[in-house]
Write a structure and sequence with these properties.
The complex is a heterodimer. In chain A, strand 1 and strand 2 form a beta hairpin. Chain A has two domains: about 150 residues, Roll (Ubiquitin Conjugating Enzyme); about 45 residues, Helicase, Ruva Protein, domain 3 (Orthogonal Bundle), CATH 1.10.8. Chain A is globular and about 55 Å long. The longest helix of chain A has 15 residues. By secondary structure, chain A is α+β, with helices and mostly antiparallel strands. Chain A starts with a helix and ends with a helix. Chain A is about 40% helix and about 10% strand. Chain B is mainly α. Chain B has five domains: about 110 residues, no CATH class; about 55 residues; about 80 residues, Herpes Virus-1 (2-Layer Sandwich), CATH 3.30.40.10; about 45 residues, no CATH class; about 190 residues, Four Helix Bundle (Hemerythrin (Met), subunit A). Chain B is built from 15 helices and 13 strands. Chain B has a three-stranded antiparallel beta sheet. Chain B has a two-stranded antiparallel sheet with strand order 2-3. A two-stranded antiparallel sheet of chain B has the order 4-5. In chain B, strand 12 and strand 13 form a beta hairpin. The chains are: A alpha+beta, B mainly alpha. Chains A and B meet through helix 1 of A and helix 6 of B.
């Protein structure tokens, strides 16, 4: 079972120094097993200025009922980017993260905050030799400039919901003949993905 | 030869090459030649009960070498896959401290029991304060509450990481003390603690390149340890003989690759499939396979569809003996016939070798049943003469026979790959191949004749023989055994030196010939001793 008392304490701890770290963790619903983490993109990287949301699921128990497995913190939390991000160690499709401390290097003494700090550190120091997304990693190694450009564009497009980029997309979609209110809500539910929003709008 | 095992070991062992004197002579000449003819390394059988003793023996070496306790020695050995030589080498190279640190053996002395600490400590895992008696300090100096330690251990054991459970501190590399793990886990789940103990013991076998489980099904519980990981065939105490490299049944003189290909070939009957693809054609309409049983090239399927046998295309029915009206595909004819011819030859070749291989395998099975009938005959004789004599020579003679028989059956798949197919295609000219094949076949036939002779002698109904005739039978068996053994050795020489030895950079190393039981077989002692 998850040690909820510990999760509770972690959340308190985290909200106390939110000013200095910029890292936020909040429960998604009443259950403490599903949370959302928020990290700012590191300064001096193509992710600067973006705010990235990460879905966190805490492991409850083993695969089988009879398995005497303890959940969090003895097993690592499952983390996945909810915001689309262009990075060699993060899947551009699913947001899956390739980070050792979320797998076999996890230690129960680590916390959600330290794990999120590691994810943030991963954003500033990609490891293209151990890629999660082969396409991105290849671009990173072969054509670094294009990589930076794409990563920055993705940050602008997906990690800044209130930026000008969105207004442009809204007007573009409105020009296509969709009502503005609908466009805004659809765009939001699609996570800022213009194409996905268009698909949704078209399908009804 | 120098590869005997000390007999004062405290667990069971079997020496793989307790050779006789003249075996020495025969081998001496070629010993320094190549790896292929190197003697098989000696091996030991480790039973379920002796795993611990075998493990302890290796641990003691490291404990004496480095002044470590048993737990630290085990951690170090697990990290280095139980290779004492490697540990010694690294000790000289890097020194004790580095060696230990890399393996996660704590070097500092934090072992004293939490002195000068307040009565309660804050656990950094559950964020609770617990009394000192409910917390445990590992050798690395990190202290957490017992509940958290236990959960951590249970998760790691269930993840299959029992052999190196590290401290919970994210920056600490040291492996936790197995005694403490056992005590803590045992308090919550005694069964899992037992499992943990077993996992640690089995590490000696599973993480060790010189030791392998016997592949018997159902598993006999034994493992085999070899002195040297070179290619060799070993025999478990349960009777199973297997190849230490590929773990399949003993297959010398076939190499591991040949044996793998052969078993696969026999399994999927790929030759039959091959035959079918050449001799039949799918109907273009109903797709059933159609065989041509005569007549011209216009074939009619049962479904009524007519098609051209040469190209498989659907046609009309109007034709004469030479042409199908409105259809032409003549240029394909030649190629097709060549293909058909080759498939026929390949199949024929495979059948030749497979039939002989199978025949000897069948004899092998029949001969293993002989054991009981020989026992019957012996007890009859003993009843009649009311004295018990030493009949081990006939029982052991039978044992050798089955060994010879197995080798004989395996010479056929060997020849199949040696003198045909793709493996050695580029390495011999066809003249060379023919010459070598004849040489090999000559040896093989002689060996075969002697194996049959030995088989015949062992089947004699000696139960109504008098003492004189039994003496005679024994002498004949010994004579035939000796010549068979010599022929077998010659055959191996031929394979190792003339056939495989000449191949450049070959991967086909085979296990060397050995009859490990000559000493025990009782065929060596003088005749007089038996008839006293």
């Amino acid at each position: 079972m998850i040690d909820f008392a510990r999760v509770q304490k972690e959340l308190q701890e985290c909200s106390r120094d939110i000013e200095s770290s910029g890292i936020k963790v909040s429960p998604k619903s009443d259950s403490l097993a599903r949370l959302t983490g928020t990290i700012p993109g590191p300064i001096g990287t193509p992710y600067e200025g973006g705010t990235f949301q990460i879905d966190i699921t805490l492991p409850v128990m083993g695969k089988f009922e009879w398995e005497l497995k303890d959940g969090y913190p003895f097993e690592p939390p499952k983390m996945q980017f909810a915001t689309k991000v262009w990075h060699p160690n993060i899947s551009s499709q699913s947001g899956a993260i390739c980070l050792d401390i979320l797998k076999d290097q996890w230690s129960p003494a680590l916390t959600l905050k330290t794990a999120l700090l590691s994810v943030q550190a991963l954003l500033s120091a990609p490891e293209p030799d151990d890629p999660q997304d082969a396409v991105v990693a290849q671009q990173y190694l072969r054509d670094y400039q294009t990589f930076v450009g794409t990563a920055r564009y993705w940050t602008e497009t997906f990690a800044k919901p209130s930026s000008l980029g969105v207004e442009e997309k809204v007007s573009k979609l409105v020009e296509m003949g969709f009502p503005e209110v609908l466009v805004r809500s659809t765009l939001e539910s699609a996570g800022g993905d213009e194409n996905l929003a268009l698909e949704k709008l078209c399908s009804g | 030869m120098g590869d005997y095992v000390d007999s004062d070991d405290d667990y069971d062992y079997q020496d793989s090459d307790e050779g006789c004197d003249d075996e020495d002579d025969a081998v001496e000449g070629i010993e320094d030649d190549t790896e292929i003819v190197a003697r098989g390394p000696s091996f030991k059988v480790i039973t379920k009960e002796s795993i611990l003793a075998a493990q302890r023996e290796v641990m003691h070496k490291v404990m004496d070498l480095l002044w470590l306790n048993a737990h630290h020695a085990r951690t170090l050995l697990i990290h280095h896959r139980w290779d004492v030589d490697k540990v010694t080498e690294l000790l000289v190279e890097n020194g004790k401290e580095k060696l230990c640190a890399e393996a996660g053996v704590p070097t500092g002395n934090h072992n004293n029991d939490i002195p000068n600490l307040p009565s309660s400590v804050g656990c950094e895992i559950c964020f609770d304060d617990v009394s000192v008696s409910d917390a445990t300090k590992m050798e690395c100096g990190h202290i957490f509450c017992n509940d958290c330690w236990t959960s951590h251990f249970i998760v790691k054991i269930n993840e299959g990481k029992s052999r190196s459970i590290r401290c919970m501190d994210p920056n600490c590399n040291s492996v936790c003390d197995d005694a403490k793990i056992k005590a803590l886990v045992g308090a919550r789940d005694p069964y899992l603690a037992q499992k943990f103990d077993r996992f640690l013991q089995e590490s000696y076998i599973e993480d060790n390149s010189r030791v392998k489980w016997c592949p018997s099904v159902p598993h006999c519980g034994n493992a085999i340890s070899v002195d040297d990981v070179k290619l060799c065939e070993v025999e478990c105490a349960c009777g199973l003989q297997f190849c230490f490299t590929c773990l399949s049944e003993a297959h010398s003189p076939c190499s591991c690759l040949m044996w793998e290909l052969w078993t696969k070939k026999c399994q999927d009957e790929s030759e039959t499939v091959n035959w079918m693809t050449v001799h039949t054609k799918p109907c273009p309409k109903c797709h059933k396979l159609v065989e041509k049983n005569g007549g011209c090239n216009l074939v009619c399927c049962l479904c009524g569809q007519a098609f051209c046998w040469l190209c498989g295309g659907a046609t009309g029915r109007d034709h004469d003996w030479t042409t199908i009206f409105g259809h032409s595909c003549g240029e394909y004819k030649e190629e097709f016939e060549q293909k058909s011819q080759r498939a026929k030859i390949d199949l024929h070749r495979y059948m030749h070798y497979h039939n002989r291989y199978q025949a000897h395998l069948d004899s092998f099975k029949l001969e293993s049943k002989l054991k009981e009938s020989i026992q019957d005959k012996i007890s009859k004789l003993e009843e009649r003469d009311s004295i018990s004599k030493d009949f081990s020579w006939i029982v052991n003679g039978l044992h050798s026979l089955s060994k010879f028989r197995r080798i004989l059956s395996l010479t056929y798949p060997f020849a199949y790959y040696m003198f045909g197919g793709e493996i050695f295609k580029a390495e011999m000219t066809s003249d060379e191949k023919k010459m070598k094949r004849e040489l090999f076949e000559d040896q093989q036939q002689q060996f075969e004749g002697n194996v049959e002779r030995l088989s015949l002698l062992l089947e004699e109904n000696f139960d109504d023989y008098d003492g004189e005739r039994i003496k005679d039978l024994r002498a004949r068996i010994i004579a035939v055994f000796k010549s068979t053994e010599n022929l077998c050795r010659n055959l191996y020489d031929c394979i190792e030196n003339d056939l495989l030895g000449s191949q450049q950079g070959t991967v086909h190393k085979i296990s060397p010939f050995s009859i490990p039981d000559i000493q025990r077989i009782g065929l060596k002692e003088p005749l007089q001793q038996w008839h006293s």
